[in-house]
Design goal:
Layout: E1 2-10, H1 13-28, E2 34-40, E3 44-47, E4 64-66, E5 73-76, E6 80-86, H2 96-112, E7 119-121, E8 124-130, E9 144-155, E10 158-166, E11 186-187, H3 199-214
Parallel strand pairs: 1-2, 3-4, 9-11
Antiparallel strand pairs: 2-6, 3-5, 6-10, 7-8, 8-9, 9-10
Helix pairs in contact: 2-3
Amino acid sequence: MVEWITTPGLTDYRDAESWMEARATAIAAGEAEECIWLLEHPALYTAGTSAKAVDLTDPDRFPVHQTRRGGQYTYHGPGQRVAYTLLDVGKRGRDVRAFVQDLETWVIATLDTFNITGHIRDGRVGVWVERPDKPPLPGGQMAEDKIAAIGIRLRKWVSFHGLSINVEPDLGHFDGIVPCGITDHGVTSLVDLGLPVTMDDVDVALRQSFGAVFGD
C-alpha cells in the first residue's frame, strides 16, 4: 500500500529533502511503505543536475537550493502543489524512463479531471498546455505554457523528489529563472487558465487518478 501524507502550511525545502532521503532509505530496506507526500514550499529556486548558471537570471530574488534530482532550474512556492513520489521503482519494473512516463501520465490524467489537456513534448521536460488565446510563435507554431514540472532521483531503486503542478502560484516568481532551460514558451497555472480550482481539488484529483496509472 502507498501511504498518502498531506502537510499544511509551507515546508522548508532542506527539511523536506532530509525527510525524503530517510524515508527512501527505509523503503529500500523494507522498513517503511511507499508514500506520496503533498505539500507546498516557500518561494525558492532549485537547481537540478543539468542546471546552467546562465539560466538563473535573478540569483538574489529567492533562496537557491542545489539538489541532485534530475532536470534544470525550477521554482517552488505557495500556490503550487508539490507531490513527492517515494516509490519502489525496483518493484515496478526497474525502468526509469517508463517510470517518468508514468509520472507524466499521472499529471495528464489529473489535469483531465478539470478538462485541461496536457501534452508531453520531445526535448521539453514536464507537462504543457496549448494556448490558442496567445499570439503564435515566430515560426507559426501555437504558443504553449508549462503547467507541471517533473524531476526525480533514485536511491537503491526508490524514487524521491517528484512533480509539481501550478495551481495558483505567483507566475511572476518564475521570472528569476529560465524554467527548465526553455526560453520560447511560458508558464501557466490552473487558475491562470480560468479555472477556480483549489489545492484540495487538485489533491482529490491526484489521488483518484493515481491508481489508474500505478495500480495502487
